Amino acid sequence: MNLYVAQNRANWDERAPAHAASPDYEVDKFLEDPAFLSNVVRFDRPRLGKVDGLRGAHLQCHIGTDTLSLSRLGARMTGLDFSPAAVTEARSLAAKLGDNTDFVTANVYDAVDALGAGAFDFVYTSIGVICWLPDIQRWARVVAELLRPGGRLFLREIHQMLWATDRLDDGTLAIEGAYFERDQPITGTGGGTYVQTDVVFQETVAHQWSHGLAEIITALLAAGLDLTMFVEHDSVHGELFPGAMESLPNNEWRLTDRPWRLPHSYTIQAVKRP
């Protein structure tokens, strides 16, 4: 395990229990309402279509709320994450719900060995995850190997243009970050996280990588998948710029000032060639 992966895993291991306890992940609602779905899956559902009876793999599943939401829609799900602590939280929630979804601890690049080649009708990737991967071409090959012929990938992600945008001290939004993939990571330090919590974290170093849209689409095509959907959205799951975004009724967030300037997120679907 290289240093980047080790530090990222330590970062997520420490945050997983805090995320599970935070009201933002709405674990209590899963326990109270058998029909409750995560905000992420509710947003995706019109484009995702029916998954009833399909076998799905959720890569980088974190604490499993999206995975279990897909299970509630009738899919036979397997979640995979490199954080043992996150998988522990996912298994705990599944047990409380009486859901038999499998959760596996493995690096996403080892997913074929961990889950099996050609075993899945669809691969699902929820928002805010591919930035943790250094090589998008290798990721695309993993997705293709997991899918049966005719199987599909469903990916919704934060738009790289929004990722590359920074809010300056005077409140101005400016393109300061990387758009294209680079060999070296974007390394940040900070003791916070994206949910409400009083936990003080000790693991403060994290490494991310940028991936332009053309790089992602080209990688999928080269891996043997054909693009069937590409939609850009004017909202994103999460308040990326506190104080500069407005909350929408569907629990999404959008820039308050001229939101039409930037795509906020996007959805891609691609089907594996026979």
TrEMBL record:
Concerning Gene3D superfamilies, the annotation shows: Vaccinia Virus protein VP39 (3.40.50.150)
Might you name a Gene Ontology BP term for this protein? methylation
Q: Which CDD domains match?
A: AdoMet_MTases
Instruction: Extract the SUPFAM superfamilies matched here.
Output: S-adenosyl-L-methionine-dependent methyltransferases
Superkingdom of the organism of origin = Bacteria
Please indicate if the UniProt record lists Transferase as a keyword: yes
Keyword vocabulary terms for this entry: Methyltransferase, Transferase
User: Which GO terms fall under molecular function for this chain's record?
Assistant: methyltransferase activity
Q: Has the keyword Transferase been applied to this entry?
A: yes
Pfam families membership: Methyltransf_12
Name of protein: Class I SAM-dependent methyltransferase
Q: Which species does this protein come from?
A: Fodinicola feengrottensis
